[in-house]
Amino acid sequence: MSSWFRKQNSPTVNQKQRLLSSLENGMIQASQQYKGYSKIGEVLHLQGPHISLKALSTAIGHLQRRHPVLRSRLQINREKTNSYFLEEDDTLQLRIREMPRKRADHMILWRQEWREREKETTVIGQGLAEFWLLQVYDSLC
């Protein structure tokens, strides 16, 4: 069991669940109401050989084993209105979007994709993170 879930001062429903604080609940509610408010995106630009979807999936799996939030689902707390909790799920597979791009698009394609998707709300019951693999394929160069 992860120490992150045990160290928090917020109560736990069971060892694999952690109730969100009032601040965290407020952020989730704002995100739901204002379509993605407070969503964060990070970009890692790698130069090198082709990255296989399988290799990326394996690397993400290693990250999930180390970081409990990456293996947690957001759930609705049915016992309290406007309240949520995180539930660890060791079988959770985070979504990976594979998007081909042209070599010249490395600075614009991810911004266009982000503008289209930044307003999507967090889906209750799904993982909290998603990965995008924007990659140049030889036929697109």
Topology record:
Blueprint: H1 3-7, E1 17-19, H2 22-33, H3 53-66, E2 72-76, E3 84-88, E4 95-101, H4 109-117, E5 130-136
Parallel strand pairs: 4-5
Antiparallel strand pairs: 1-3, 2-3
Number of strands: 5
**How many separate structural domains?**
1
Helix content estimate: 25-40%
State the shape.
flat
* SSE order, one letter for each helix or strand: HEHHEEEHE
Low-pLDDT residue intervals, each spanning 5 or more residues: none
Index terms:
single chain; 141 residues; alpha+beta; Chloramphenicol Acetyltransferase; 3-stranded antiparallel sheet; two-stranded parallel sheet; 5 strands; flat
What does this 3D model show about the protein?
The chain is an alpha+beta fold. The chain has one domain (3-134): Chloramphenicol Acetyltransferase (2-Layer Sandwich). 28% of the residues lie in helices and 19% in strands. The protein is built from 4 helices and 5 strands. The strands form 2 sheets. Strands 1-3-2 form a 3-stranded antiparallel beta sheet, with no helix packed on it. The mean pLDDT is 82.
